[in-house]
Design goal:
With 155 residues, this protein is an alpha+beta fold. Helix content is 39%, strand content 40%. A six-stranded mixed beta sheet has the order 2-1-6-5-4-3.
């Protein structure tokens, strides 16, 4: 075989492996950020984690609401945690591609405080949904939430 050909083939393989491993690193980092998001921020309301994981101008689309700042997002999440203090998200599935992570999740919580003008009922709520996250520079830039309306159970 031609030595020049072997060198070019080897160089191409190394470059492709380098790109692939960098892409793999980014995907794994993004998935880790999302795991922290659910555990530290969504489940426990840790505002320090929110500051570390979300961009200041994060956009949250959770129809019908659209939020365009981390401060507004933190206020909304504080209200949610007050109304549902035992809330717990579980990641059921995740797919990462490029700068996006898609998570199918379930949520279980008990309505123990006022929420959107409704007094506490003491009922447990179960909801499933999906959230599409777009990340850049190690921070969540956008979140688009889609709820499965058929999955809302109250006991």
């Amino acid at each position: 075989m031609n030595t020049k050909f072997l060198f070019q083939a080897g160089l191409s393989a190394m470059l492709l492996c380098g790109c692939a491993s960098r892409q793999h690193f980014v995907l794994e980092r993004n998935k880790e950020i999302i795991h922290r998001y659910f555990e530290e921020w969504a489940n426990h309301g840790d505002t320090k984690a929110a500051d570390e994981l979300n961009a200041n101008n994060v956009t949250l689309r959770n129809p019908p609401a659209v939020v365009h700042s981390l401060e507004d997002y933190k206020k909304g999440m504080a209200t949610f945690h007050t109304a549902f203090p035992d809330l717990h998200f579980t990641i059921e599935e995740e797919i990462a591609e490029g700068d996006k992570v898609l998570v199918r999740w379930s949520l279980r919580a008990t309505h123990r405080g006022d929420y959107q003008g409704r007094p506490p009922t003491g009922k447990t709520v179960s909801v499933t949904g999906m959230s599409l996250f777009r990340l850049a520079e190690g921070k969540i830039q956008e979140i688009t939430v889609s709820l499965s309306l058929a999955s809302r159970n109250r006991t």
